[in-house]
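re: ur question from yesterday

yeah so i grabbed the chain u mentioned. its 723 aa long if i counted rite. heres the sequnce exactly as i have it in my notes:
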Amino acid sequence: MALDSGIGTLAGSGDVTAPVAKTVRTERVHHGDVFIDEYEWLRDKENSEVIAYLEAENAYTEAQTAHLGGLRNRIFDEIKSRTQETDLSVPTRMGEYWYYSRSFEGKQYGVHCRCPIDAAAEGIDAWTPPQLEVDTEIPGEQVLLDSNQVAEGHDFFALGAFSISHDGNLLAYSVDTSGDERYLLRFKDLRTGEVLADEIAGTAPGATWSLDGTHVFYQTVDESWRPDTVWRHRLGTGKDDDVKVFHEPDERYWVSIGATRSEKYLMIWVGSKITTEGWVLESDNPEGDFRVIIARRDGVEYSAEHAVVGGEDRFLILHNDVVDGVKAENFVLAEAPVSDPSNMTLLIGHRDDVRLEDIDPFASHLVLSYRREALTRVAIWPLTESGYGERRELEFDLELFAVGSGANPEWEQPTLRIGLTSFITPMQVFDYVPATGELLLRKEQPVLGGYDANDYEQHRDWAIAADGTRIPISLVRKKGLPEGPKPLLLYGYGSYEASMDPSFSVSRLSLLDRGMVFAVAHVRGGGEMGRLWYENGKTLTKKNTFTDFVSCARHLIDTGITSADRVIADGGSAGGLLVGAVANLAPELFKGILANVPFVDPLTSILDPSLPLTVIEWDEWGNPLADKDVYDYMKSYAPYENIEAKEYPAILAITSINDTRVLYVEPAKWVAKLRATKTGDTPLLLKTEMSAGHGGVSGRYEKWKEVAFEYAWVLDTLGLADA
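ran it thru and got these structure tokens back, copy pasting raw so excuse formatting
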């Protein structure tokens, strides 16, 4: 029975009672199908009853997890004790300065700094970053932006734009203090430290300078939070004088602006999930008109970067258009004259086993990024007087790893900054010297407390899906664990062609050192195995994402690595959709479900084009408004709409009230319906951050507390709270 506040009570453990949301009959009618949604009323966050319900859920969650307070504190202390809180990043050279960031013990946010280069240094020495020490005064150090000062007085803080003008004199930066991803753009004169009067509210997170530093280009979003317009701002003028230089009315497309690596051209990019179009303008002519590079064609994606090859300006174009009568699903690389971009010459053809991802031109070489066998790769391609030299792939002695080009802002530089990490390798920053092949280690992420990578092991395994497809699984654990099934956290995402590449985590050690195995199911819908891996896990093949995850769990159980009573499924956002669907599909395989900002009511959201991001998402999920088959298919897997009167694993759902990507109402409705429908007595918890967005709480200490909260719940659910 519902109370006037919209909340009833349900008996819980001991004297603690669980809130029960009232029901209000709401009909959703599409394609002749009538769906009765009894919890849609929770969408109105201006309604005091809604806030009361969320706060009641928070109070219940806190009461149900109060016994874990000590464990949470221990995990927080472990993360803190392993982290070098006062630290510096590896300096990156740009112009006449080395740029770096600092962190300080006791401070939530980073501090952005620079110091002058050694004017007497020559050759490679001029590109060797100084060895800065945290407790030693750095000659000439200048604090560009102290995020702690900017964040003062705010419960939430996120830095958006951080862009230095080409002459190094001006900084454009933007901040979000509510979590809704709308930023306030400001400017600072780095010569005087003065914050300029120019102030632009409601921007998207980015800013691009013209070559002469007189103008800044920025974006704004429409009512659906879609970046749709590019503006030009002349420093020293009011916002009302800003000029709209580009607008995209088609709601399927996002707009962005940036510059080529050479800084010769400004580039506006217009992209949907399946189609792109670029516009170009000389950076030294900021008040000129952008011109299209190659006109958009539905289903064709491309990117273009400026290179100087054989003394001539060229565009290097990655695209997935038809080549020799075959669709280049994994992309090809071509070159074309800047004056005639459609006149392309193929440089690298299509391969089924290699997904080309990026090309970074420098004055003397190119850097090609791609993936093969579910791992990232980087190759260096020298430029010669007549064209192109011989490519060389960088190799690393690790079974699993992730490598990528790092901060390399200069067009002419004798080194290439790259980053390397794995599940057992803290982030390593190298400078690669193309002329000699040297790989110079500049820094490895410090892990305090005696961390030794040799105490852990990582491995690649493969599950077999129902249709015979081999699904990669990455695993990491501490060596020497007892024989028999191990407690295991199985993570998955599987959407938007996003790849879950191996990476090191200090906080994860708190699980591994307690005997847990961490595994990643590289399910279809992600991009680990190429474009077709993504294509076979979206729209009308989306269920492959969920069944692949189930196949991975079954494989790990069948091979004795774990057992059904020792597995927790973990996913966030679209990964929250994954674990929500899996909870319906195969609840018997999991002891618990950890769902962060979960997209668990996808059909309701994708049916409403007025909601943030909906229209552009139709390329990912299909358009259920226009297509009954899409509607029926989405309804068949939507977690919220497929809740049944059966036993579910223990569930912890975490959301944020100001999330604009996955609205808080989705997990709120999901938990309300689960509580009213499921059988059994497994715990069901909802935690709503009341001042945060899609990324959760801000500030590193707050994030560590959140991780500790989640990990304590994981360990307790698996009976390891005392491990």
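noticed a couple things. Confidence is low (pLDDT under 50) at residues 1-5. also The radius of gyration is 26 Å.
anyway ttyl
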